[in-house]
TrEMBL record:
This is Hydroxysteroid dehydrogenase-like protein 2. Pfam families: adh_short. Keywords: Oxidoreductase. The lineage of its organism: Eukaryota, Metazoa, Spiralia, Lophotrochozoa, Mollusca. It comes from the Eukaryota.
Length: 281
């Protein structure tokens, strides 16, 4: 009898991360629910325990994992706990994020440092922790929640973009290193604004958003196939899998939310892509 698949979702106490955990569980995954939040409050609703309770009540298997992504030992313990409790790990999703959408001159260094530590450094730490296990068993899927690289994304939020785009660079670069190993990595980003704790704080109108189920369904699809070093858009990815009606994901049933992502993105490949200069450096 084959072992049930297992996953680690970092940044899973609310919003998109919570839904990713729920969707994975309802589709046969054991889930490590990792986040810094261990107690739900009015100011910060949702916790690792509340999400695990939801999963268990629905018949799934999950473990709550307290994890401050600014501490590498917390991420290392989260990965190891999943391996110990579940007997292995098949999927790692990095959804933790720090957001401050302001210009360079309006972003203090302490806020810049926070975003880099939570976003790109946290993702890098997770990679360092899961790769030995994945490479040893010649299989594993990694998904980072990060955007395509294009100039418009930077406008008005350059400090934030530094870390998020850095995560995407990790995806493209690491994919080159993982060729032939059986381990794959992808980036995923929403086409339309997704309803979350952040959007509620920003008071984004419901008619402009889709539910987090859409993004979670895309995560599930990627988890079930091999995708190497690509930056995917949730809705566009699901269209390639035959999904044509997205109305069930709309927060307001009769209102089609506007797309926030471009329809096409610039290629990062160059004519000399396969020229290897490493031996000459």
């Amino acid at each position: 009898m084959s072992r049930m698949k297992s996953s680690l979702v970092i940044g899973a106490s609310r919003g998109i991360g919570r839904q990713i955990a729920l969707t994975l569980s309802s589709n046969g995954y054991k889930v490590g629910v990792a986040s810094k939040t261990v107690q739900s409050t009015e100011k910060l609703p949702g916790s690792i325990h509340s999400v695990v309770d939801e999963i268990v009540k629905s018949g799934g298997e999950a473990v709550p994992i307290q994890c401050n992504v600014r501490k590498e030992e917390d991420i290392e313990k989260a990965v190891q706990q999943c391996i110990n409790v579940f007997g292995g790990l098949d999927l790692a999703v990095y959804n933790a994020g720090a957001i401050m959408w302001k210009k360079v001159i309006d972003t203090p260094l302490k806020n810049f440092d926070l975003m880099q530590e939570v976003n790109v450094r946290g993702a890098y730490t997770m990679l360092q922790c899961v790769l030995p296990h994945f490479l040893q068993k010649n299989s594993g899927r990694i998904i980072l929640v990060s955007p395509p690289i294009y100039n418009r994304f930077f406008k008005g939020k350059t400090p934030y973009s530094v870390g998020k785009v850095g995560m995407t660079v990790l995806v493209h670069g690491l994919a080159n290193e993982l060729k032939g190993t059986g381990v794959s990595i992808s980036a995923l980003w929403p086409a339309v604004t997704v309803k979350s704790f952040v959007t509620e704080k920003m008071q984004v109108p419901d008619e402009m958003m889709r539910s987090p189920e859409l993004f979670a369904d895309a995560v599930l699809g990627i988890a079930e196939e091999k995708t190497d070093g690509v930056t995917l858009i949730d809705e566009d990815y699901l269209r390639t899998k035959g999904v044509t009606d997205f109305s069930k994901y709309n927060c307001v049933p009769d209102s089609e939310p506007p797309r926030i992502m471009p329809k096409k993105f610039p290629s990062l490949l160059v004519e000399e892509e396969d020229v290897d200069l490493s031996s000459k450096l």
